[in-house]
Specification:
The structure is a single chain. By secondary structure, the protein is α+β, with helices and mostly antiparallel strands. The protein folds into 3 domains: 198 residues, Heat Shock Protein 90 (2-Layer Sandwich), CATH 3.30.565; 161 residues, Ribosomal Protein S5, domain 2 (2-Layer Sandwich), CATH 3.30.230.10; 136 residues, 3-Layer(aba) Sandwich (Rossmann fold). Helix content is 42%, strand content 21%. The chain contains 23 helices and 25 strands. A hairpin with a 5-residue loop joins strand 1 and strand 2. Helix 17 crosses helix 23. It is flat and about 80 Å long. The termini are far apart. The N terminus and C terminus are likely disordered. The structure holds 3-[3-(1H-pyrrolo[2,3-b]pyridin-5-yl)phenyl]propanoic acid. 3-[3-(1H-pyrrolo[2,3-b]pyridin-5-yl)phenyl]propanoic acid binds next to helix 4. The site of 3-[3-(1H-pyrrolo[2,3-b]pyridin-5-yl)phenyl]propanoic acid has 12 residues, from helix 4.
């Protein structure tokens, strides 16, 4: 066996030699391969980094940070520094082992060059170097090189300092060079995103801040530094207690039941960390934040399934064993999860790394399910026994959730059987202008601010597929109230019935009568406030609508620029001030401007053309990018602790920016 391997190696080496000789000869097929891979990334950047907008732009940083984080996770270096430079570049410096610089078999290039110019090199030349990996979608640093104007890599390794530079699109500009001796070890990558690729090349302090904060929570013991040389801001992120600190941040403004709970296990092949916090409020939708190898698994997966089963079993078994409930009154999963925030992080060996789908957003590894379930049952059972008072409070809370849910289910069943349908159930019909089609996926529900805009929207809509629901006044703040009060609220009960897919833990997005829920408000502060109140409701009670990408914000234009001599036929709509300038130029001398202060100022045709018609409107899809930010926005902006809210706003935003965040709609 050994001998055969050696033989194979010798043959490999000989072939390698020939290849290398050939490579040195001239411009070879390898170079062409490299260039075509890099070009491939440039042709379809979206496939590699998601998009070419601000979110894609920041992905370039995340790719590099993930590599440095891998080193740190594996015990090499505990400081990682990200700097946003004045020239628009970003550098990421770590104190790891330094990227290898020796010639890589198979390509004949220095390993560092492979890492930055080849796809699927993944940087992980062999499993042995890495037990776990935080790398994103397997595109590693190559996407960053391909989509940058330049990339400089400086490496300190084995007592020497090295440098290599790639130019626009990843073309090798300065081959690997030795710069001299050094005592340091580590890697610095500095790159400047290519403005011909991205719609914006402006790195946002907030985005990087949130990303590094999340990383610090997930990678305990590593210090992350953020420096912004453009405005001299800096911040250090460090979470001594990892997920324990994370859960405390997420629940900072909530009314808690008991303390935050934390367990970890570093001894098994699958390493697990879990943090739990039950809260009093009726937050109903699932608040489980899941990660695998430091990557946020938005779609959950086997680790989440294991967690749900584990918690349900531990709580029920303990309650029955201690005679708090009877076997026949077992609590449902929804009853136990109501008000619970959970963060689960599993680290799985790289070779087992099995994400479903290309986006790594769902963990598919079967072993993770039983590992997490058993881990959870064991630790939580022990915790409940050690904290009896808390355990009993928790079970009482679950029981009252169960009672509310049972009553609601009975009412629903009665309503379905038609026996007790009350007049109140039909209140929706006089406000809602329903769509004619029964093709639910194609149907759109516009929730519109104000009756007058609602009127225009009703006459301008596509009757087949668009339904209009006008809202009167401001919706209730669902962060300040209980589920019962929310249900009693006319606006929300109408929305719930109109969507027809249940609410809270009983919500099932697949039953929704609309494929798109579109919030349409005036483009002013009141409108933004209504948006956030509605989004808060969807987030708290119909979260799957958001995670499935079914919630949208309509974008009415702010201006209409017209030719004074022919206002009916020559006009351009403008959505912001940049559009406005462009429109003025296009129309030329003799222009006039309508400024729309609200939806109501547009007539039905105008509203339809600019904001509702599928072919010409602008819609923003609401997505949850970062759970910490969402929770912070939701719980701090909407929560009942006014001083926290004031502090957060003072530290972070002018109110305008909250407004503009709404326009970008990263919840
Ligand atoms: C491959 C192998 C080794 C380290 C790295 C890659 C590495 C990559 C990056 C990216 C940013 N910083 C990094 N630091 C290290 C280990 C090689 C060895 O055994 O020393």
């Amino acid at each position: 066996m050994m001998e055969e391997e050696n033989k194979a190696n010798i043959i490999d080496d000989a072939a390698e030699e020939r290849r290398r000789a050939k490579a040195e000869e001239s411009y070879t097929s390898k170079d062409i391969e490299v260039l075509s891979e890099l070009e491939g990334i440039r042709k379809r950047p979206g496939m590699y980094i998601g998009s070419t907008n601000s979110s894609g732009l920041h992905h370039l940083i995340w790719e590099i940070v993930a590599n440095s984080a891998d080193e740190a996770i594996n015990g090499f270096g505990s400081n990682i520094e990200v700097t946003l430079h004045k020239d628009g570049s970003c550098s990421v410096e770590d104190e790891g082992r330094g990227i290898p610089v020796d010639i890589h078999k198979g390509t004949g290039m220095p390993a560092v060059q492979v890492l930055f110019t080849r796809l699927h090199a993944g940087g992980k030349f062999s499993d042995k170097n890495y037990t776990t990996s935080a790398g994103l979608h397997g595109v590693g640093a190559t996407a960053t090189t391909a989509l940058s104007e330049y990339t400089d890599v400086t490496i300190c390794r084995g007592g020497k300092m090295y440098h290599i530079r790639f130019g626009q699109g990843g073309k090798l500009e300065v081959p690997l060079e030795e710069l001299g001796p050094t005592r340091k070890h580590g890697t610095t990558v500095r790159f400047k995103p290519d403005p011909t690729v991205f719609s914006t090349v402006d790195f946002k302090w907030d985005s990087v801040y949130n990303h590094l904060q999340e990383k610090a929570f997930l990678i305990r013991g590593v210090h992350f530094f953020l420096k912004d040389e453009r405005n001299k801001l800096q911040h250090e992120f460090y979470a001594e207690n990892g997920l324990h600190d994370y859960i405390d941040t997420l629940c900072a403004s909530k009314e808690r039941l008991g303390d935050s709970i934390y367990f970890d296990d570093n001894t098994s092949p699958i390493k697990i960390e879990l943090a739990l916090q039950w809260c009093q409020k009726d937050y109903n939708s699932d608040n489980i934040f899941s990660y695998a190898n430091s990557v946020h698994t938005f779609g959950g997966g086997t680790h989440v399934t294991g967690l749900k089963a584990g918690i349900t079993k531990a709580v029920n078994d303990w309650a029955i064993k201690n005679e708090v409930i009877k076997e026949k009154d077992k609590l449902g999963r929804e009853d136990i999860f109501e008000g619970l925030t959970a963060i689960i992080h599993v680290r799985i060996p790289q070779s087992n790394n099995e994400f479903e789908g290309q986006t790594k957003e769902i963990l598919g590894l079967q072993e993770a399910e039983s590992a997490v379930r058993e881990f959870t049952v064991k630790n939580l059972t022990y915790y409940l026994s050690e904290h009896k008072d808390f355990a009993i409070d928790l079970i009482h809370k679950c029981q009252s959730s169960k009672a509310v849910r049972d009553a609601a289910r009975k009412a629903k069943e009665a309503a379905r059987s038609g026996k007790t349908q009350k007049k109140a159930d039909f209140v929706i019909s006089d406000k809602l202008a329903a769509a004619q089609s029964k093709d639910y996926a194609e149907n759109e529900l516009f929730i519109v601010e104000g009756d007058s805009a609602g009127g225009s929207a009703k006459s301008g809509r596509d009757r087949l597929h668009q339904a209009i629901l006008p809202l009167r006044g401001k919706p209730l703040n669902t962060n300040d109230t209980t589920m019962e009060k929310m249900r009693a609220n006319a606006e929300f009960s109408t929305i719930i019935q109109t969507i027809g897919a249940g609410v809270g833990a009983d919500f099932d997005a697949s039953e929704s009568k609309y494929g798109k829920i579109i919030i349409m408000t005036d483009a002013d502060t009141d409108g933004a406030h209504i948006q956030i109140l509605l989004l808060t409701f969807f987030y708290n009670y119909m979260k799957p609508l958001i995670t499935n990408g079914m919630v949208y914000i309509a974008c009415p234009p702010l201006y209409r620029v017209y030719k004074k001599s022919d206002p009916k036929n020559k006009f351009i709509y403008a959505w912001d001030d940049a559009d406005l300038e462009e429109a003025k130029e296009k129309i030329g001398p003799g222009y006039g401007i309508n400024r729309y202060k609200g939806l109501g100022e547009m007539n039905a045709d105008q509203l339809a053309a600019t904001t509702m018609n599928k072919a010409t409107r602008k819609l923003l899809r609401v997505r949850i990018d970062d759970p910490i930010v969402v929770e912070k926005r939701i719980s701090v902006l909407m929560g009942n602790d006014a001083s926290l809210r004031k502090q957060w706003i003072e530290e972070n935003v002018k109110f305008d920016e909250v407004d503009s965040f709404m326009k970008e709609v990263k919840l």
